[in-house]
Input
Amino acid sequence: MNWNDVLAVGLALPEMEAATSYGTPALKVRGKLVTRLRTEDNSLVLLEVPPDERDMLIAADPETFHVTPHYEGHAIVLARLAALEPERLRPFLLRRWRAVAPKRLVARFETAQVEA
Output
């Protein structure tokens, strides 16, 4: 994957927008961070990933998932874009989007998903 692939997956969610965070490309919903690109290692910062899940992801697929000491104490895992597939990315973006998007927006989205 590359950043354009990330945009294609992320911008499919309601009110998601391309933005910046810490001077790097990011996806936000109403100004709240969903993910950002770590340009220093071409990885995505995936939020809302509890430490036990992060550890399992890293153990199962260290080529894709990793963490740096900076993120150790946070509910974050890093994902190398070169090894990531769009279908693996979407659940992470959706989880974070649900956590930060307005509740009414999430409810409308969920209703539309059920009706589809």
